[in-house]
Amino acid sequence: MSFSEQRLELERHGFIAVDQLLDEQQVAWYLTCYDRILSGVIDAGPWRSDLGSGQPRKREGAENITQVMWPSELIPGLLTSPAYEGGLQMTRQLLGSDMAFDFDMLIDKAPYTQTPTPFHQDMAYWVELPDRRALSCWIALDEATADNGCMWFVPGSHRLPLRKHRWHGAPGGALECDGDEAECVCVPLRPGSCTFHTGGVVHYSRGNSTAGHRRALIINFRPEAMIRLEREQGFDHGKTRNVREMRS
Ligand SMILES: O=C(O)CCC(=O)C(=O)O
Predict the structure, then answer these.
(1) Which of 105, 205, 215 has most ligand 1 atoms within 8 Å of its beta carbon, as the pocket-test mutant?
(2) For 78, how many CA atoms within 13 A lie in the half-sphere containing its CB?
(3) Is the CB–ligand 1 distance for residue 216 below 6 Å?
(4) Distance 125 CA to ligand 1 centre (A)
(5) What percent of the chain clears pLDDT 90, i.e. is strictly above it?
(6) Mutate to test the pocket of ligand 1, among 69, 151, 217 (most ligand atoms within 8 A of CB)
(7) Cβ atoms within 10 A of the Cβ of 67, count?
């Protein structure tokens, strides 16, 4: 698919899938970094939390869904590595040359944790900005399937008003809005492949009901001027304030 076709599809559906952003060797390197964080060899401190805390605890002493914000602050060299450079290059082709790195995160669904990521729109977590362009590059480091928690998107939902969001459990956990698999497209991915999704598209993933991990690296891009504006308002995606917020 050409860039102009990808641009059109992104505009129409609010997401696109891209094959093999990373090759096998690169994926292996990211997994090594990932596992040093997951195992605690690298301590993520307050950047590590349970995105699935609104649901009953599945494993004693472990998260239902492990979310680690700002891995690029934990691993030297990550920011200039192929996923970040390749993701930024694609984002600039899709949304303009002023797009820049905003924040990153890891989300792991451990074996048999059976914890869905609730339906939501990323924008619901963010401050209101005059320029709403934003893209999340969601990179599968394991094969992502319906059964271990690949992404599901509601095509076109980014062109409709933001859905009403509520806390999924206690405040500070995940946000959720109404949504249904029947309105979604399910996007399984091979390791190293990715999706790019806009801040307004409704999405969700099932819980992991398999024996393997579902590890994803997520890199978010936004116009440079909007990143400056966010930071001026004290909003830095948990870098210095470890809280999830709700806008609507
Ligand atoms: O990995 C997941 O299950 C959810 C990811 C997500 O919601 C996002 O990247 O915006």
Answers:
(1) 205
(2) 21
(3) yes
(4) 12
(5) 89
(6) 151
(7) 22
Mean pLDDT of 16-36: 98
Each residue of 76-101: pLDDT tens digit?
Answer: 999 999 999 999 999 999 999 999 99
Residue among 72, 30, 27, 22 nearest 47 (CA) = 72
**Residue owning the nearest CA to atom 1 of ligand 1:** 107
Please enumerate in sequence order all residues whose Cβ is within 8 A of that of 153, keeping only pairs 6 or more positions apart, or say none.
13, 14, 15, 184, 185, 187, 195, 197, 201, 202, 203
Atom of ligand 1 nearest to the CA of 214: 1
What number of residues does the chain have?
248
Amino acid identity of residue 29, one-letter, is: W
Report CA-CA distances (Å) from 27 to 87, 178, 241: 14, 34, 30
Where do the domains of the chain lie, and which CATH numbers do they carry? Answer: 3-232 (2.60.120.620)
pTM, full prediction? 0.96
- Rounded distance from Cα 146 to ligand 1 centre (Å): 14
